Amino acid sequence: MQSSFLNFTSFKKAANRLLSRMESSSASCVVVQLGQGGNQLYTSFFTALANLSNPTMQNSGFFREGTKGGRVARAVLIDMEPKVEACDMFGGFLTAQSMAGGTGSGLGAYVTELLKDEYPSKCVLSHCIWPYESGEVIVQNYNALLTLAKLQESADGIIISQNDALSSICRKTLGIPRSSFDHMNDVVANSLASIFLPASWRTVCPSERNEHPRKTFRDKGQYEDEDGIKGGIYGAGMPVRLLSDLVSKLCAHPGYRMLSLRFTPQISNKSLNFTTFNWGAQIKQLQQMLMTEALGDFDLDLILPSAKKDTLLGSKVSRFGNTPNVNRCLANMLVLRGSGSLTADVSRFEHESLYPVWSVDHLSVAVNPAKLGKYEMSAGLLCNCQSTVMCTFRALSRAYGMFASRAYLHQYFKFGMEISTFEEAFTTVEDIISRYLAL
Amino acid sequence: MPREIITLQVGQCGNQLGCRFWDMALREHASCNPNALFDHALSSFFHNVDRRYTPPQELSVGAGNTPIRFLKARAVLIDMEEGVVNQLLKGSLAELFDSKQYITGASGSGNNWAQAHEVHGPQFSDAILEKVRGEAELCDSLQTFVMMHSIGGGTGSGVGSYILETLHDAYPEVYRFTQSIFPSADDDVITSPYNSLLSTMALTEHADCVLPLENQALLDIISPKVTKPFDEMNSIASNLLLHLTSSMRFEGPLNVDLNEITMNLVPYPRLHYLTSSMSPHLAVSSWLLQLFTDVFAREAQLMKVNPNDSTYLACALLMRGNSCTISDLQENVARMKSRLTMAHWNVEGFKVGLCNQAAVHSPCSLLCLANNTCIRSRFIGMKESFKQLYRRKVYVHHYTEYMDVSVFDTASNMMDDLIEEYETLETARTPEHLVRLQPIMYQ
Asked: Residue ranges of the Tubulin/FtsZ 2-layer sandwich domain (chain B) (predicted)?
C-alpha cells in the first residue's frame, strides 16, 4: 500500500502532462485504471471498443491517433508503474477499480478525491468492481465500505459491477459454466462499450414530441437515419457528451450516485448467427432484467424502524398500486444501437411504478444507427436504481459483525486510521442505503 | 516490479531446509525459463552478478532480457557449528553463496536457548546485521524476511529469536515470516520443551507470520518406503515456501502477495500462527475436486492438529496451475465452507489466489493456509511438557547460567495468554443483537 502512494507523485506529474495537452472540449475522457482488477477489466474494455466500433466510430473519445497511425487508448495505468498516453480533448475522468483489494480501493478512493480537488469542474465517474460475496479478500467488506464512503463524497457517479451477477450471466445466459475473469470482463466491456461509444440523444416518445416539449430541449441539430429520414422530425439532436451528460442525466441528486449497467443481447458468439433481432423483444428483455432485480426477500426490518417502515411502504403501495418489491429507479439512460433505433418504442421504461413521483426527466434515450460489433441491434442501460443497495447492505452487515469483534482493525490502525474513520464510513453507507430504500 | 525476499537459515535444521529449498527453487525457475534470462520472477529470490569484473557487477532485471551470469541467493546462513554450512558450501549449490553471506561459530549452542540467545546472539549481532544489510542493499524493494529454523534446539531457537528481535528493531517495515519446525511429542532433544516455550515468546512478539511445521506430520505424509526421509520432508517444507511465493513471482489472474497473507489471515496481531496443508504433496494429481477435499483433511496438515474440530478464524486457498478458473474456486469454497466452522464474524473468511505457473511436480496444486484455533492444542502440549520439566527444576541451571530464571515465568505466562486468546475465539458465539448506526430517514 505504501509503495503505491510513493508512486503517486509520478502519477500527478503524468496527469498534469496529459491535461496540458488537452483542449477544453467535451468529447473525450481519461480512464484511470487502478490495481489488478481495474487494469484487467479495462484492458478488456479497450479491446471491446476496438472490436465493436466500426470505422465511422473510430474517433470515439477513448482513443487518439497514435504516432504510427494506429489508435491508442487514452488510459492512465496505475499499478505501481504509471504510464501515460497523451490526449487532445478532455471531458472527465473514468476511474476503474476493484472494491476488495488494497490498490484499487484505497488508492482508487484517494485518486478520485485528488482528481476532484484538482479539476473540480470536470466529471469523475468511478467504475467499481464489487467482489464475490463469498469472498475474494477477507477484509473486502471493510475495504468496499471505506471506499464507497469516500467515493460518495468525491465521485460524481459510481458504476457498480458485481462479480456474482457477472458470473451468473456467464453461467445462465452465455452458457459458460466455469467462467474466468476474462469472460466476466468481456460482459462488462460489452455493456460499457454500448454506453460509451458515440451516440446522439433522441426524444423518448417520437410521436408525442409536441405534447412533451420538456423532452425536446435539445431539439437543435439534425440527425439523419440510414433510411434517409431527417432526424429533425423526431427532435433528435446533440451527440452524447461523454461523462458530463451521463452525470447530469443520471446523478443529478448528490445523495444518489450508485449506477448499474445492463445490456442486451447477452448471447454467445455461437448462437449469434441463429438470432433474429427485433427491438420489441430486446427492450422487453432489458426491462425485465431491470425489474427482476427487485429487493426480493430483502429484510427491511433489519434497517428500518417498524413504524417508519409502515408509513414508508404504506405510502408507496397506495401511491403506485404496486408491491414495494420493485427495483425502483431514479433515472435511466438507454442507448440503442442498430437500424431502427431512432424509432424503437421504449415506453416500457416509462412505467410509472419504476420511478418515485418526484423524479423528473427520468428517462434519457440515446441512439446510433450503426450496429455494435456483430449485434444487429443492441441496447445498453445505465441506471440509477435500488439494485446496488442489496450488496452494499450485506457488506455492511458483515462489516458490523467483524467490527464488533474488533477483528483486523490493527491492520488499519497501523496506518493511522481510527475507530471513528470506520464509524463515519458506516454512517455514510447507512445513509446511502436508507435513501435508496426510500425511493 | 520485483519484491524481494531475503531468507535467513538459522541452525542445523534451518540450513538443511534451506539447502533443499534453493535446489528446488532453481529447478522451478529452470523449468519455466528455457532461455536462461534473469527475469522478475527470479529476482525475488536471486540476484544476478557478473563476476568478470572486480568487484563483481550487479545486473538488474532491466527489460527482462538480461542473460543469467551468476545467480546468487538472497540469503544469510547462520549456524553456531560449521558442519552443515560447510557441507552446503562444498556441494553443488556452493555457487549460490559467497563468504559475505554466512556466519558460523565454532562452539555450537548445545541445545540451549539461553546460551544462544544471551551469548551468541549479542556476540554475532553486528556481523548478522551487516550481512543482512549487505543483502538488503542489493534489493530494489525488499518486502519480506523469511527465517527457516527449528524451535526445539539451541541455535535455531535462541539465535533465531534474537535475530527476529533485531530485525523487528532494524527493519520495522519489512515483513518477518518464519518457517518454524515445532518439536514432536517424542523429540530427541531433551531440553526442547524449554527451548520451544522461550522461542514461542519471541515468535509471538516479533514475527508477522509463523508457519509452524512438525516433523511427525511430515514423516506421516511421506511414503514409508522412501530411503531418504529427511530429503522428502525438506522437499515438502520447501514446496510450501515456493507455493506461498508463487503468486508474487509469477503471473496470475488473482495475485496474492505475502503482505496480503498477513493482512487477510491475521485478524488479531498476536494470533499469527498459520497451519498449512497442501495437495498434492509430491505426486501428481489433477482432479480439482479432490484437491479441495484433500487440503482440509487432517492427514494433509503439516502439523499434528485437526482443524475440522476447531474454528477457522480465516483461511487462504492458493491455487497454482492454469487449469483452474475463478468460478471453480468459488464453487469449491462454497462446497467446503459448509463443512467447516468459521468464526461468526468471518463467515466469508476465505482469501483465494490463482497463479498461472504450475509447480514442477504437478500441473495443478493447492495450498491451504489456515488461522485455526486448533493450534492451541499444540501450545497446550508444549506447556504441559514444559511444566513436567520445570516442576522438578531439571536442567534449569544450564539456563540460569545465562539468563534470569524469571524469563521462564514470563514465557510461560505469555503462553497462557496465547492459549486463552485462542480459547476465547473458539467459544465465541454470535452476539444476539448487533448495534447498527441508525440513519435519519429521508422522505
From this structure: 254-384
CATH number of B4-269: 3.40.50.1440
Beta bridge partners of B5: B144
A319 closest CA partner among A352, A288, A361, A363: A352
Q: Compare A435 and A85 and report the one with higher pLDDT.
A: A435
Every domain of chain B and the residues it spans = 4-269
Instruction: Sort B156 into a burial class: Cβ within 10 Å, 0-12 / 13-18 / 19+.
Output: buried
Give the active site residue among B260, B331, B421, B426: B260
Distance of CA A212 to the CA centre of its chain: 28
Burial class for A418, CB neighbours closer than 10 Å (0-12, 13-18, 19+): exposed
Q: Work out whether the CA dihedral A125, A180, A34, A5 comes out positive or negative.
A: positive
Apex A377 CA angle, A375 and A378, nearest 5: 85
In the numeric block, the cell 462454497 is attached to: B334
Q: Tell me, what's the ipTM?
A: 0.84
The identity of residue A286, as a single letter, is: L
For residues B148 and B156, give the distance between their C-alpha atoms in angstroms, rounded to a whole number.
8
Residues 326-385 of A with CB under 8 A from B: none
Alpha carbons A402 and A144: distance in angstroms, whole number: 14
How does pLDDT run across A133-189, given as a tens digit for each residue?
A: 877 788 999 999 999 999 999 999 999 999 888 888 888 888 888 888 888 888 888
State the number of CA atoms in the 13 A half-sphere of B103 facing the CB: 23
Q: What is the pLDDT of residues A245-301, one digit of tens each?
A: 888 889 988 889 999 999 988 888 778 888 888 899 889 888 888 877 644 444 444
* Domains along chain A with CATH numbers: 2-198 (3.40.50.1440), 200-292+320-386 (3.30.1330.20)
- Closest partner CB to B327 (pick from A167, A427, A431): A167
Cis peptide before B280 (omega within 30 of 0): yes
Query: Are the C-beta atoms of A98 and A129 separated by less than 8 Å?
Result: yes
**What per-residue confidence (pLDDT) applies to B414?**
95
Q: What is the band of B440 on the pLDDT scale with cuts at 50, 70, 90?
A: low
Distance, in Å, from the CA atom of A70 to the CA atom of A61, rounded to the nearest integer, reads: 15
Residues of chain B in contact with residue A182, where contact means CB-CB under 8 angstroms, are: 253
Longest dimension (CA), chain B: 81
Helix pair angle (A389-404, A140-154), 10° resolution? 120
Nearest chain A residue to B335 by CA: give it. A134
For residue B66, list its beta bridge partners. B38
